[in-house]
Amino acid sequence: MASFKSSLSITHIGTATAVLHIDNINLLTDPFFSPAGAKWPITEDFALEVTEDPALRMDQLPPIDAVLLSHEDHPDNLDHLGRQLLDGRHVFTTVDGAKNLAPRPAVRGMKPWETTTVLLGGAEYTITATPCQHVPGDECVGFILTTERFGCHDDGRPNAIWFTGDTVKIDDFARIPEQFHIVVAIMNLGSAFGPSPDGKPLQITMDGKQAASLFHSLGAEHLVPMHYESWGHFTQMGNDLKSAFKEGGVEEKVRWLTPGESVTIL
């Protein structure tokens, strides 16, 4: 990774919401800013409720250059406050998400493995959408970022930063290390469960064991956990995650975020 010339720090705001400070630009992931106690009914007998306030208010954010929105149709990834931050900014999301967020001309809907480029802060970034397996029937994507200043691995693969989006581990992820050297993997975890079509609980985000296994298969260098606190449908939180990472042999590779503080990763 000697050729990686960029800097990366991350300010975690809550759930899957964070600011990625890359050199002179700021990317925002899955904007959610509702206060503790906010609820969203999902079914007649199931509601999402957030238990903690966001670490930063919207008026405390730095200027945002672009938004990486894994999916627009779940309130814990995009709430009514976060939608205000989409106006007039580059937004990358799912194909359905782009349709549902129209008319916003700078919103780009992406299919899994589709690639696009964007000029931010004077540098060209390449963004590749990655597949997710989340809630049946709903679209969700992750995002791999590369740029010239990230450089390449010794074997020629471009160095990259990956934001997984909401997903469990899937076989399709085997394509990633074939094409990219993941320097930093920002993973949405929590082992969240939701209702399935047959009414049984369905795991919809990774647990620590899956995350550790995925990290090893990627050959990645740093693991940044997010999306494991503040919600009742999450079943594996901080201490349990730490135990899983230790058992999975990745604890020394994990970079824990402190809400509201900029944590230097690279």
TrEMBL record:
Pfam families named among the record's database cross-references: Lactamase_B_2 (PF12706)
UniProt keyword Lyase, yes or no: no
Keyword Zinc-finger among UniProt keywords: no
Domain of life: Eukaryota
Keywords assigned: Hydrolase
Example of a GO MF term: hydrolase activity
UniProt cross-references to InterPro entries, sorted A to Z: Metallo-B-lactamas, RibonucZ/Hydroxyglut_hydro, UPF0173_UPF0282_UlaG_hydrolase
Location of the Metallo-beta-lactamase domain: 26-228
PANTHER family, sorted: L-ASCORBATE-6-PHOSPHATE LACTONASE ULAG-RELATED, UPF0173 METAL-DEPENDENT HYDROLASE MJ1163-RELATED
Name of this protein: Metallo-beta-lactamase domain-containing protein
Organism: Aspergillus niger
